[in-house]
Amino acid sequence: MGTYGKIPNVNAHLHTPYSFSAFENLTDALERAADENVKVVGINDFYSTDGYEEWDKEARKRHLYPLFNIEFISLQKEDRDSGIRVNDPNNPGRTYISGKGLSCPPSLNEPYASQLAGVRAESNAQVKEMCDRVNLLLNAYDAGFSVDFENIESFMAKGLVRERHLAKALRMYACIHFKNEPNDIKCFLEKIFDGKTLKSDIFDYAGVENEIRGNLLKAGGAAFVPEDPKAFLPLGDVRNIIIAAGGIPTYPFLGDDAKGGFTDFEQDVVKAAETLKQRGIYAAEFITTRNSIEVLEQYAGYLHDNGFVVTFGTEHNTPVMEPILLHARNNTPLTERLKQINYDGACVIAAHQELVRNEKNGYIDAHGNADIDNRHIYIKMGDELIQNVI
To answer: Global pTM?
Structure first.
């Protein structure tokens, strides 16, 4: 509970334009958070810490408490070889991992800095090849225009170019070329979709971009490029990078899908928690809009009760603008218990950040061992830090 008896709202997982997001810029995200009374905000970009110092400054200016996080896509070879889907429902072994509470200003020594730079470079190279294939497709259909990767990199992205940037650029180039004539744009897109009907209204930009991505850039699409295995570091290496950067390795649970299904790894929360601890991961998070309130209560409750640091977020890593204030599937409000679990987790991260900033041991030590028995001390310290800002 917060110092004044009311649980502050937390969103600990927000992507920004430093990877890809619905927000125009960092301050857009923070203004929306302030408007929705979300008091603790965690930047959480793929492979990037570039937004940290602006996030810190602009959050505090608005009396919001900033958390500094990062996200990776790793590969767990044992799970891949066993056909176990972890938290990517389509690719066995592929494992999303976040780091929470990294150092700000960012600090990362070798060889970890080069490893991080390497995965960013591989990610950009994949999208560059997709862009080349898009242009081959446009040329084959005599579209009359092409998509400029360097332009996307310079004006639409901030260091990391994602396939969503490419989908957005293609939509924008088409709108310019066809002078915003809805029928012309629709006919063009359906032509390069190999005759598939455009389901979104042409002025539903997020919908159109999602259809471009799904029809052209994902597996089976004409511009799809498989990811090079070099783009995925082993889970152990990612964990080491996060620890070296001052953070807490954190497992993002996918949770239940719309039909109530789970991945192989997550279907038994007790077993999943034990495996995560064996792999040196003592924190977890959920993107709450994906899950039923019942599963959030069960899974987050079990993890919290068994020593994990648990936080929630929304991502906002698609073109669709959604509320920053958290809710479960079907716009179900979070329960008081879930709000408390989320706030407790944010408090631990806040305390960890502050301790590491002052060159002390945080919630995890240099080897990644968590101080679980004293978690309550970090919660109390973090609560004081947060209340002082908000």
So the answer is: 0.91
